[in-house]
From TrEMBL:
Record Pfam families: MFS_1 (PF07690)
Protein name: MFS transporter
Record has Ion transport as a keyword: no
Taxonomic source organism: Actinomadura yumaensis
Tree of life domain: Bacteria
Length: 492
């Protein structure tokens, strides 16, 4: 009896080591989406990049990450989630070291693309490990709460870390910092329970699906990135969007006929899971536009330094931590997922709405506007991420968990890329129109642009709540979903 008890305790400790390792990996993936943005001006000067080429330091990572996520999900299943996780961490660390040591722009762009390749394997493998390790409802809630807190706070932490490292060390440390984090996570995987690769019969790897998904996602993400400098009516942007949509439509057609599809369509057609994907995509559209607003507004209008602007976002990160761990984590399994997702979307929308009241002459901006908005959006994001991550993989067959995890990460990636491009374009267009028609000051025009973009973000979140509501599970389906979550996925 004593030996059995000790064995159970050891197994429990190993489960929590999984959470630590996966959370560290999640921090790497999310952090890298924003930390390099702060370092880019310094890197441009050091490596003599042109204004036209500098965006590839961001775009190369986004294209590789977004385009290869579904393939990464399949690789994770084929090699085993734990093994893929270690490979992803090691490769990400090596690519970060190469990027930090870059001697020219091409070397930096190549390293960023390589980071995206390994992140595309790392992200679905990490979420899959979390899903298969934590199957008891209460533990699952706590684990997904911590995981989501890291994801929700990662973007804000990236801005803070990027500002501090660039100002007091070097832009290169915005890449080097990934190496010790990744190696610590690799060391932690020694205590992560092993899993077996999936041995499936009935057909070869879905190569057409892999090529179509990579091309389609890459084209759409690149179109979003090009919309900011060229405009949404640019032939290049419209051509990329049309090409991406055609490729993704062909991907769906191929998947419906494939014997071993890269993304089984039942993953997307499940009503509760579809609600999770819609919610997290639109939440990321709004939130990444919000982070862009915070960065520009605090620095260009309020005169904050990059470090001060980043530190302001700590309020948002702390609220996200509270929302994901103390609210969503504790209520997991006690209430329906939509009982957390819908209030989360509404809270974030109210935060956006508050900021639309700002003007160039607003006083006491930090206590009256920014702090309440940062708290509301943080709480909203913290309440949305854990239940959507859990719903995305709940009740899946063992061999489909990697694909579901990859689809969830792809939804976030597409939302972030679209939000940054869409809301930045809206802000720039509104500012230009205001300046031309109202003959106001450049500052007043900039604030008008920001508030207009945030009004659009508010509308997106309200639309997300309205679209998600009909997708809410019926009472009987919620009970069955909760019962499935409590059962471990069948291990072959």
């Amino acid at each position: 009896m004593m030996e059995a008890s000790q064995g159970a305790a050891a197994s429990g400790r190993r489960r929590w080591w999984t959470l630590i390792a996966v959370s560290a990996a999640q921090l790497l993936v999310v952090l890298d989406g924003t930390i390099v943005n702060i370092a880019l001006p310094s890197a441009q000067r050091a490596l003599d990049m042109s204004d036209g080429s500098r965006q590839w330091a961001i775009t190369a990572y986004a294209l590789a990450f977004g385009g290869l996520l579904l393939i990464g999900g399949r690789v994770s299943g084929a090699l085993g989630h734990r093994r893929t996780f270690v490979i992803g961490l090691t490769g990400f660390a090596a690519a970060s070291a190469i990027g930090g040591a870059a001697v020219n722009a091409e070397m930096l762009f190549g390293a960023r693309a390589l980071q995206g390749v390994f992140a595309a394997a790392l992200a679905p493998a990490g979420l899959s490990l979390l899903t298969t390790t934590f199957t008891e409802t209460r533990e699952r809630g706590r684990a997904f709460g911590v995981f989501a807190a890291v994801g929700a706070a990662g973007s804000a932490v990236g801005l803070v870390a990027g500002g501090l490292l660039t100002e007091y060390a070097s832009w290169r440390w915005c890449l080097y910092i990934n190496v010790p984090i990744a190696l610590l996570a690799v060391a932690g995987t020694a205590l992560v329970p092993r899993d077996e690769p999936i041995r499936e019969s009935g057909g070869a790897l879905d190569v057409p699906g892999a090529l179509l998904s990579a091309g389609g996602f890459a084209a759409v993400v690149y179109a979003f990135n090009q919309a900011e400098p060229h405009g949404w009516d640019s032939p290049k942007v419209l051509g990329l969007l049309a090409g991406g949509i055609v490729l993704l439509a062909a991907f769906v057609a191929v998947e419906l006929r494939a014997s071993r599809p890269l993304l089984p369509m039942r993953i997307l057609l499940h009503r509760g899971r579809a609600g999770a994907f819609v919610s997290i995509t639109l939440m990321f559209v709004a939130m990444f536009g919000f982070y862009l607003f915070m960065s520009y507004y605090t620095q260009t209008v309020l005169g904050y330094s990059p470090v001060e602007a980043g530190l302001t976002l700590i309020i948002n990160a702390a609220a996200a931590l509270v929302g994901s761990t103390l609210i969503a984590g504790k209520l997991h399994g006690r209430v329906a997922p939509m009982a957390l997702i819908l209030p989360g979307l509404i809270a974030a929308a109210l935060g956006m709405l508050l900021l639309t009241r700002l003007t160039a002459g607003s006083e006491h901006v930090l206590p009256l506007y920014l702090t309440p908005a940062l708290v509301l959006t943080g709480l909203g994001l913290g309440c949305v991420m854990p239940p959507t991550a859990s719903l995305a993989t709940a009740g899946m067959q063992w061999h489909e968990i990697g694909a579901a995890s990859a689809a969830y990460n792809a939804a976030q990636q597409l939302g972030a890329a679209l939000g940054t491009a869409l809301l930045n374009t809206v802000a720039a267009s509104a500012a230009a129109s205001y300046l031309a028609s109202e003959h106001g000051t450049p500052t007043a025009a900039a604030v008008h642009g920001y508030t207009t973009a945030l009004a659009v973000a508010f509308g997106i979140l309200v639309a997300a709540a309205c679209v998600t509501l009909p997708l809410a599970l019926s009472r009987a389906e919620r009970r069955r979903a909760n019962e499935k979550e409590e059962e471990p996925a069948p291990v072959p």
